[in-house]
Design goal:
Strand order of the largest sheet: 1-2-3
Distance between the termini: 70 Å
Strand content: under 5%
Number of strands: 5
Mean pLDDT: 83
Radius of gyration: 28 Å
Largest sheet: 3 strands, antiparallel
């Protein structure tokens, strides 16, 4: 076994100013400074050579949380500092990643000398595994340190393990690790509680998440923006958006100043709920509070407008991003691509796609997927196919979503044969079609009146390994209603409760639509009353369907009055107390 000694201990990459054309300077402990343009990142490889990496890919991730800050919770690392692995650490990393037997890994770790250098190597390996999202490997190493080695773990080791358990939705083990931390007389930090909160949220144990605040106060710690942000982020990722809004309001009531990350999370929350102007209000509020937006905040705003197809607004924010001194990365460009796609301007999206390449920003898989969708939405299925093939040619493996978007493109064109070919190709590629793909096929067969094929797919879904959801039955109810098969439609609707499915606004509106086409006004009102009694409130589509059932001015006036009354009642319900 060849062990190389590396005289280079660490590297430090100075952060660049947002508003200047400063340059990155890499300082090496045993050599002179080496300058690189700010768009390059530098690191020292295991042979001691200076090399560059793509900073955009290293420093950012999806979902709108702050990126480019090293390890956000509990790491001790700050912006621009990355763990430099020694030759021994590299060997440990490679062994842990390639060895499947946990006992063999622990036996190998037992042979390591119990020195400060070994400790540093183990923690650096764990942090590198965290960057690679190898949570099982982190658990193996940290559990060995805690339960088998003679090392005395510090708070960083405990935090690593709590986060890894949280990512695996093992909240009980995360809680047990926290108790071990206290028993070892190790002082928990705000990062410890932030990670514990996220662990509880990912497992849906919100009562324990709330209790964590009491636990903090017990040790004299007031919840900071870091803790609140972790809680809001965890709630959003676990699908509890309304609770996340409540925590944000509590944060402000408690006098805790929202940070840039707080605003970015909330902008994302409202953007995903198609409330882009609420996102814009928050964006303006943060600037009025002298809270400086970062590139993630601008990208979140671009995405908020993109989801609603407001490409001009998205472009304005994109320009503000550049005026603020930020260099657009692949996530910002993808947001702008999405805006043009949803607005129905595929050639506008194509221009943005070409621009990002011209500016040296390499498109990723999401970029190609957006372009496939842009052409598909516009009915240009041949162009969508060309982008799909180009993605494969460049060595980017199409995912389930890639195939699904191409399937949607051909589905809009009514090309059954091509859609069936895509599903078969997915099977050959080892991709198992999900509920969304099969629902697309159901919808295609239904629209084309091929009811036998539609029912064959449904039978396969109900009897096979595929899950059905409310969208599955919404498609069927709509199809039967349009075809005039009222008995089948009603039978399917009545069977939903036996499948543990609750009719949503689409279900009720599709059912109403069937009778509305026949101008059966009285029946429509009966169903509408059922809908309200069931606690399902109408949307704009429901109102249009009801109005289309009317055949006289009196009926139109009656429906308008009912809808206005319900809308007024809803506003009263939603007003804050």
């Amino acid at each position: 076994m060849l062990i190389l000694e590396c005289p280079l201990k660490c590297i430090f990459i100075e952060t660049r100013s947002c508003r200047t054309k400063s340059r990155w300077r890499t300082k090496i402990s045993c050599s002179t400074a080496v300058e690189k343009h700010y768009h390059d990142g530098l690191f020292i490889d295991k042979r001691g050579r200076l090399r560059s990496f793509n900073r955009k890919k290293m420093s950012r991730k999806r979902c709108g949380s702050l990126r480019g800050r090293g390890w956000k919770y509990g790491s001790g690392f700050v912006d621009g500092i990355f763990p430099v692995l020694s030759p021994i650490a590299n060997q440990i990393l490679n062994f842990v990643q390639n060895e499947a037997n946990s006992n063999r890994i622990w036996d190998a770790l037992d042979t390591l000398p119990h020195t400060h250098s070994t400790w540093d190597d183990l923690i650096n390996v764990a942090v590198q595994l965290r960057l690679n999202k190898k949570w099982d490997s982190i658990i193996l190493i940290c559990e060995w340190i805690l339960y088998r080695s003679s090392f005395r773990p510090d708070v960083m080791c405990y935090n690593l393990l709590i986060e890894a358990y949280g990512q695996k939705t093992l909240h009980k083990k995360a809680e047990s690790t926290y108790l071990d931390l206290l028993e070892a007389r190790c002082i928990p930090t705000e990062d410890t509680y932030a990670l514990l909160l996220k662990a509880y949220c990912s497992s849906g144990v919100l009562q324990k998440a709330e209790a964590t605040f009491g636990e903090m106060r017990k040790y004299g710690l007031s919840p900071s923006a870091t803790v609140y942000n972790a809680y809001i982020d965890g709630l959003m990722k676990s699908g509890h958006s309304q609770k996340a809004e409540e925590i944000y309001k509590r944060m402000k009531r408690d006098g805790c100043e929202p940070s840039t990350e707080t605003y970015t999370l909330l902008i994302n929350l409202y953007g995903k709920a198609s409330q882009c102007y609420v996102s814009l209000k928050l964006f303006n509020e943060m600037k009025s509070q002298k809270c400086k937006p970062n590139i993630c905040t601008y990208t979140a705003m671009v995405n908020a407008f993109a989801r609603e197809g407001l490409c001009e607004k998205a472009e304005e924010i994109f320009e503000q991003l550049q005026e603020a001194g930020f260099e657009p990365d692949v996530y910002a460009y993808n947001g702008l691509l999405e805006a043009y796609s949803r607005a129905g301007f595929p050639y506008g999206a194509a221009e943005v796609f070409s621009l990002m390449q011209h500016m040296g920003c390499e498109p990723d898989r999401a970029s190609f997927n957006i372009m496939v969708d842009a052409y598909g939405r516009a009915g240009l299925h041949e162009d969508a196919q060309a982008v799909f093939e180009e993605m494969k040619r460049l060595g980017i493996m199409p995912t389930m979503k890639s195939h699904m978007l191409l399937l949607s493109a051909y589905s809009r064109a009514g090309n059954v044969g091509k859609c069936e070919d895509i599903v078969n190709q997915m099977h050959k590629s080892g991709l198992k079609p999900d509920t969304f793909v099969l629902n697309s096929m159901l919808n295609l067969y239904g629209r084309l009146g091929q009811l036998e094929k539609m029912e064959e797919v449904l039978t396969a879904m109900e009897k096979g390994p595929y899950a059905t959801d409310i969208s599955t039955y919404n498609i069927l109810i709509n199809t039967y209603g349009r075809a005039g098969f009222f008995e089948r439609m009603e039978g399917l609707f009545q069977s939903l409760h036996t499948k543990n499915l609750i009719p949503d606004v689409v279900t009720w509106t599709s059912r109403l639509g069937a009778y509305s086409r026949k101008k059966l006004y009285t029946r429509c009102l009966e169903i509408f009353e059922e809908m309200i009694d069931a606690g399902c409130y109408p949307d704009g589509g429901t109102a249009k369907v009801l109005l289309s059932a009317c055949s006289s001015e009196d009926q139109i006036e009656q429906v308008t009055t009912v809808i206005r009354t319900i809308h007024k009642d809803m506003k009263n319900v939603l007003l804050p107390v």
